[in-house]
Specification:
2 copies of one chain form a homodimer. The first copy, chain A, is an alpha+beta fold. Chain A has 3 helices and 8 strands. In chain A, the strands form 2 sheets. Chain A has a 6-stranded mixed sheet with strand order 2-1-6-5-4-3, with helices on one face. In chain A, strands 7-8 form a two-stranded antiparallel sheet. The longest helix of chain A is centred in the first third of the chain and has 20 residues. At the A-B interface, strand 3, strand 4, strand 5, strand 6 and strand 7 of A face strand 3, strand 4, strand 5, strand 6 and strand 7 of B.
Chain lengths: 148, 148
Amino acid sequence: MTPETTKTDNEDQVRHFIADLATAICAKDIEAIMSHYAPNAIIFNVKPPFQTIGAAPWRQTWVTSLAHFPDSFGIETRDPKVVASGDMALVHWLWHFTGMVDDNAATQTWLRDTVVCKKDQGRWQIVHEHCSVPFNPETGKAVVTPGP
Amino acid sequence: MTPETTKTDNEDQVRHFIADLATAICAKDIEAIMSHYAPNAIIFNVKPPFQTIGAAPWRQTWVTSLAHFPDSFGIETRDPKVVASGDMALVHWLWHFTGMVDDNAATQTWLRDTVVCKKDQGRWQIVHEHCSVPFNPETGKAVVTPGP
């Protein structure tokens, strides 16, 4: 971080960084998606396994998922929150896909996403992502829509 | 952060901070649990709702949960990872309760936990926590055990 880079600058950079990631996903651009992740990123994804260690297996997850996505779809987000300090930033938000075919539960639900990024030589990268839905312990089932 | 506080010092502090939180939970000590959370913390819990905004409703969640817990139980963790920089730190790990009665799915599963802390006047506090299990999109059910 240069002395001229303020907390607000970093928060703005991180907001753009996450918006760029959503754009890359909707473009089904695997290189652009993966450019957001540090090589040693650890991911807690909405689907099994419990954790994905490293960008290489995470790339494979995306390649497999994107093959099932339609040519055109969108991402709707709500309640974004950014906390940045120095070369580290937290972002969390709720989101869901729009325009998806309706035969895949994973693409029909609202999701919670938490991302932690670090800035190295002026470039932000995700070191950890945690994406999930809550689950109802009485039914063992996922809860797929947030409240108001 | 004082100049004498190194990255390793901060990582050690955060490890102790999270271990203290587990001790507080096992002691069913609501004041000690809540002392780990910033007043404006936002929580994505394993159970609904999608998000809990602020320490006050999060305290109520703990009060309600602890009432159902046995007098004595433990917490087993694995794969802890700490990343600290300046006054901010990320910790994530897998964990489950031990010694719980077996009538509550929420206390029988392995969980993934992500915590982001900030240090203010020498004191770490959680600003965001995300706790979840993966879910199987084919069944809509939670997946309750991690792989090897």
